[in-house]
Design goal:
Length: about 90
């Protein structure tokens, strides 16, 4: 009788280990909704962010392409590399 109870307990534990992750993936319901004051505050923060991004992008100077190896490479007449001559 003790052997049967032990096998039953092991079976229950194995089932709990197998089924546990499936219960963890269940939908817990809709996310909590925000109050009107919170949504107004979020909209104000978003508007301020968009204005600051727009304002900062105007002030940025145009970036020119730079050649980091320019000091090490000799100046060439053509920008294209020389072709292999036979």
């Amino acid at each position: 009788m003790k052997k049967i109870a032990q096998e039953f307990a092991v079976t229950l534990i194995a089932m709990a280990v197998i089924v546990g992750p499936a219960f963890a993936q269940q939908d817990k319901g809709p996310p909590t909704s925000r109050s009107s004051s919170e949504s107004k505050r979020d909209a104000e923060i978003d508007r301020a962010y968009r204005e600051s991004v727009k304002r900062n992008n105007v002030d940025l100077p145009k970036q020119t392409k730079t050649d980091p190896w320019g000091d090490l490479r000799p100046a060439a007449e053509n920008s294209k590399p020389d072709t292999v001559k036979k």
